[in-house]
Design a protein that fits this description.
CATH topology of the largest domain: Four Helix Bundle (Hemerythrin (Met), subunit A)
Structural class: alpha+beta
Largest sheet: 6 strands, antiparallel
Radius of gyration: 36 Å
Distance between the termini: 65 Å
CATH class of the largest domain: Mainly Alpha
Helix content: 55-70%
Strand content: 15-25%
Length: 820
């Protein structure tokens, strides 16, 4: 049923797209049918998503996707997140969100069409906007046909599984993804990606219609929405990485992280260009180009992350989706890239600015367009570094991004502060100087104080000063506007958030401290101004397979407990680690576990080598290697990294007689662990199988420990961890939330202004209608009355030529009313 729903949705959206295009070309009677097919496709897409969720929640493991990503032991929120945990599901999430946003977009456009009902047809954007939007949706749904989440296990593994087979349980969700943020971060990020299709659709519609003014007012709220949601989604991913994954930071310049950042930077640049165009009439081409590029970079990032190209370069990347999907992603990207850019070139001259006045360097538009260019330069640098694995076998070091973007970040802060103090068209030097003195003076004083307290790097000193300067400029204006109307302060609040974010990045990255510690059990060590004591491990409550490693942290007579986690994952066949963090208001203390070193069970002198059928005397007993025990061993399991066991039959002769034992070695995920074994008749000796050799002449290494001999004290259990201080990292999260709040207020204000203008337009239209109606009514009435009167009068005199007097007066009255 799910596959049928996807196919129906594809057919309906394709028909809808064609009908919207024909409606835009003049066949306006088709717009009704285009809407019907669009909503039919939306219904089918949402129904297929609901069906997939039903399969997941009812554990229908005969479906490959359900088996591959879910299991019976997952809680409800994580079962929900398995919907988009794999390639097929993430494309389905994208198509689902396109359907949801499409409902709002269609309603928005229909409403706008009604508002311009009596205007020329060229003002109606619905047909072409929806044509582009539905075409994008058609491509996404076709991917779901190529890579369906509704395949059965016997279709996916025909050589291994019989038709009708239903697995008892699924493989489950990757333990790294079993976290609250898995439920929140991906949907928000994908909503941001999806929403960028709307400014893109408006831009292409403007180019197709060759109309260069109204598109901006319609697209601006959607661009603001995209900037808000995508920015939030990116930083939630950073918070997830910092608090759960144990990377020690929130941003690693990973190619997949970068591929989400680039579209956000471009849409932010586009918003500033659109504001400049709205105020001055300039930068029409730049606004169109940036809205187009922002979505094209979403498609490009999709290609990078879904094609398997970054499999060796990124921890986030999906595996190779197969040649069909790979080629289709190339076609998907190429059609929209070539088509949109060709259309932009074709209409290039048509979007020439009406106002050709010389742009003054001391104007706000000059500063804004300079800032826009710098943002584009940042996006270009990150795009080059991100694409490097395609151009070369290696990857770009994180230091490259830091070195290249640091000067640009300083310029962004400086220009942001200055542009706000400038006015449109031209500013006077005196006004600008008066407005700049206070924020500049405060910034300089704070920066000098930081230099005195230890900030020495000149580049970061300048960055801090520039960030504080822009912060105080925006804060001053925001506070003034908040007292009158808070939503008017939206842009300044957003800028304020960016500057707070900049300061948090400086403090938490440049001035962080990090050390590696080896903490023997119950022994204290000092580092970073704190005393650390490892107190042993305890099972995590509710999950006995995970362990808290308890570390007491003390300073100045007070202390607290941190509990980083380590556990062995059957899913990934390795040790996984989660950090623990103490939030200390102006800094974080960050502990990330690295390894647990346990005392050796035997020493090198305890190990002997035995060939097959060889016997030797050791420590007063005779030990003979008889043969290998392969009853628990699987070559396939070892190759796949799964757990398998190999053993060795040993014949041991003591004073009490002969006894046969099996010494075993467990192999899993590339790691080998020995399993101790003792004699049934005595615990005096413990045997450890340390090595096996099955190539050539078979042999083993066996450690024999005499438990009756007193042990030399060994090193106790030792926890190895990374401890770090992250100064002012709360500014990163605070700045993000303030920025998102600023976007929200800007969006709300934009809709409020649109509503106010619509009401004003309606009043003007109503006044004109009333004026025309009254004028026509009065003119006709007076004309008829006077004409009739004169006709009667002239008729009595035998002359009816004065009928025209009434008509002349009628025209005069109508003209006067219209003028009024």
């Amino acid at each position: 049923m799910g596959a049928i729903l996807i196919q129906v949705s594809f057919a309906a959206i394709l028909i809808s797209s064609i009908l919207y295009f024909l409606a835009g070309k003049g066949k306006t009677n088709l717009i009704r049918y285009a809407r019907i097919f669009f909503y039919f496709s939306v219904t089918a897409t949402i129904s297929s998503a609901a069906f997939l969720l039903y399969l997941i929640f009812t554990h229908q493991f005969q479906y490959t996707y359900v088996w591959d990503y879910s299991s019976r032991d997952l809680p409800v929120n994580l079962l929900l997140s398995t919907f988009y945990a794999g390639q097929e599901g993430s494309f389905h999430l994208w198509a689902f969100l396109m359907s949801g946003l499409g409902i709002f977009l269609s309603a928005f456009l229909i409403k706008k069409e009604k508002e311009i009902k009596n205007s020329p047809a060229s003002n109606n954007y619905e047909p072409f906007v929806m044509f582009v939007f539905t075409l994008i949706q058609a491509f996404l749904i076709f991917i779901l046909i190529l890579k369906s989440p509704f395949k059965m296990v016997w279709e996916s593994f025909p050589a291994d599984v019989n038709i009708g087979y239903i697995p008892e349980d699924g493989r489950g969700l990757n333990p790294l993804l079993q976290n609250f943020w898995m439920t929140i971060h991906p949907p928000i990020l994908f909503l941001g990606f999806t929403s960028l299709a709307i400014p893109f659709s408006f831009a292409l519609a403007a180019l197709m219609k060759n109309e260069n003014s109204r598109w901006l007012k319609l697209a601006m709220p959607w661009a603001l929405f995209s900037g808000m949601i995508l920015g939030l989604g990116i930083m939630l991913g950073g918070y997830w990485a910092y608090g759960v994954l144990g990377w020690g930071g929130y941003w690693a310049w990973d190619p997949v992280e970068n591929s989400s950042l680039i579209p956000w930077i471009l849409i932010v640049a586009g918003i500033h260009s659109m504001v400049s165009e709205e105020k001055t009439g300039r930068f029409k081409r730049a606004s169109l180009l940036l809205c187009i590029l922002a979505f094209l970079l979403v498609l490009y990032s999709t290609f990078l992350t879904r094609s398997g190209i970054l499999g060796d370069a990124s921890v986030h990347s999906f595996v190779d989706p197969g040649q069909e999907v790979y080629l289709f992603l190339v076609v998907f990207l190429s059609i929209f890239a070539i088509g949109s850019l060709a259309l932009l070139i074709l209409r290039f001259k048509s979007f020439k600015p009406k106002d050709e006045h010389e742009m003054k360097i001391s104007s706000r538009e000059s500063a804004l367009i300079t800032g826009t260019i710098i943002l584009c330069a940042v996006a270009f640098i990150i795009a080059v570094g991100t694409s490097w694995p395609i151009l070369s076998k290696g990857t770009i070091d994180a230091g490259f991004y830091n070195r290249m973007n640091l000067p640009l970040a300083i310029l962004i802060a400086v220009i942001n502060g200055m542009s706000i103090l400038l006015v449109w068209k031209k500013s006077t030097g005196k006004e600008f100087l008066n407005s700049i003195l206070l924020p500049l003076g405060i910034s300089v004083i704070i920066t000098i104080g930081l230099v005195i307290t230890g900030v020495r790097d000149i580049v970061y000193v300048v960055f801090i000063a520039a960030s504080f300067f822009a912060l105080f400029v925006n804060l001053k204006i925001a506070l003034r506007l908040i007292s009158k109307n808070v939503i008017k302060a939206g842009p300044y609040i957003a800028h304020l958030g960016i500057m707070i974010l900049f300061l948090g990045i400086i403090g938490s990255s440049k001035y962080s401290e990090e050390v590696n510690l080896s903490l023997p059990l119950n022994e204290s060590k000092e580092a970073l101004g704190y005393k650390f004591t490892y107190k042993g491990s305890t099972p995590v409550k509710g999950d006995e397979e995970k362990y808290n490693f308890n570390v007491v942290v003390e300073k100045d007579g007070s202390g607290f407990l941190l509990q980083p986690v380590m556990f062995y994952s059957e899913y990934s066949k390795g040790i996984l680690k989660n950090p623990d963090i103490a939030n200390l208001i102006y800094k974080d203390l960050y502990l990330s576990p690295m390894a647990l070193e346990t005392p050796d069970m035997y020493s090198a002198k305890d190990i002997i080598k035995l060939k097959k059928d060889e016997e030797t005397d050791v420590q007063g007993i005779k030990v003979k290697f008889i043969d290998f025990d392969r009853s628990k061993f699987s070559q396939d399991a070892m190759r796949d990294g799964e757990e398998t066991i190999i053993g060795a039959f040993l014949e041991v002769t003591t004073k009490d007689g002969k006894e046969q034992i099996v010494a075993e070695q467990k192999m899993s995920g590339g790691e080998t662990n020995t399993i101790p074994v003792t004699l049934k008749s005595s615990n005096d000796f413990t045997f450890y199988l340390t090595n096996v050799s099955v190539q050539g002449e078979s042999g083993i290494d066996i450690a024999i420990v005499d438990e009756t001999i007193p042990k030399i004290p060994q090193s106790p259990e030792t926890l190895v961890l990374s401890a770090g201080i992250k100064p002012f990292i709360n500014l990163v999260w605070t700045g993000t939330m303030v920025m998102v709040l600023g976007f929200f207020f800007s969006l709300k204000n934009r809709f409020k202004e649109m509503k106010r203008k619509n009401i004003s337009s309606a009043k003007i239209h109503l006044n004109n209608h009333n004026g025309n109606h009254n004028g026509n009514h009065n003119g006709n009435h007076n004309g008829n009355h006077n004409g009739n009167h004169n006709d009667k009068h002239n008729s009595s005199n035998g002359n009816g030529n004065h009928n025209g007097n009434g008509r002349s007066k009628d025209k005069k009255n109508v003209f006067t009313d219209q003028l009024n």
